[in-house]
Design a protein that fits this description.
Blueprint: E1 20-24, H1 35-45, E2 52-56, H2 62-72, H3 78-110, E3 116-119, H4 125-139, H5 147-156, H6 161-164, H7 169-191, H8 194-211, E4 216-219, H9 227-234
Parallel strand pairs: 1-2, 1-3, 3-4
């Protein structure tokens, strides 16, 4: 149903009051509508009558992709892999924050006022871990294209592949817990870096500037609240230790 709507117009030079601006993804796939189109459809279903504009969420993912490739293409020393994992978290958060800041500043400069902005883009340390685990799980099969990645990550934390894959949770559970906690700690360390904190400050300033023109900014992203219970189940009921801000978008 969402695909039945025409593509959303871009924000005009002088957007009218009462607008809804969706900062989202607008790239339909063959099988489903883009998230931004679904959000527009939902707004109409809820009775919103004002103009809706779409702005493609900005993100240059060159650095985070490079960090991943550094682990995927060739064997690396354990210390180097741990640094690349931390860099992946750091760059991912930097890219999302800087992109969102640019989007919001453009809207402020356009004169948007008395309107709402829905930002469907965010990242959390837990989201980073979720993505890494997905790639790692696929790479446990020696035939997988992600096999070198899994080799590097397991070596970085001195983990035993046979234990991780054991059907006996008494054997697999402790090893999986070590993996989960190692990735969580590494991801959280990346977010604590000074450049991410500075990017967060600049994003906060962009939000305040846009709100000063009587706009509301809503962030609808970061739905990883079920990850830790899921990891505990995979570890045979062993709860991973996690930082208090690991699910903070």
């Amino acid at each position: 149903r969402a695909r039945a709507y025409a593509p959303l117009p871009e924000v005009p030079q002088q957007p009218p009051a009462g607008s809804l601006v969706l900062i989202d993804t607008f790239q339909d796939t063959f099988v489903s509508a883009a998230h931004g189109n679904e959000a527009a459809y939902a707004a109409r279903q809820q009775g919103f009558q004002g103009p809706i504009y779409g702005e493609q969420a900005s993100r240059d993912d060159f650095q985070s992709t490079s960090a991943l490739m550094g682990m995927a293409l060739q064997p690396q020393e354990p210390g180097r892999v741990r640094q690349l994992l931390q860099d992946y978290s750091r760059f991912t958060h930097l890219e999302v924050l800087e992109g969102a800041t640019a989007n919001l500043n453009e809207l402020t400069e356009s004169g948007l006022h008395d309107s709402a902005v829905n930002l469907s883009r965010g990242f959390t340390p837990q989201r980073v871990v979720e993505e890494l685990l997905h790639r790692l799980g696929a790479g446990l099969d020696p035939r997988s294209q992600h096999f070198q990645f899994s080799q590097n990550v397991l070596g970085a934390f001195d983990l035993d592949r046979s234990k991780l894959l054991s059907p006996d949770l008494a054997i697999a559970g402790p090893e999986r817990l070590r993996l989960f906690e190692s990735l969580l700690q590494t991801s959280e360390a990346g977010v604590q870096s000074a450049d991410v904190q500075q990017a967060q400050h600049e994003y906060d300033q962009a939000v305040e500037a846009l709100q000063a023109q009587h706009n509301s900014v809503v962030v609808s992203a970061g739905n990883e609240g079920d990850l830790i219970p899921h990891l505990a189940d995979m570890a045979g009921g062993r709860q991973p230790a996690v930082g208090k801000d690991s699910n903070l978008n």
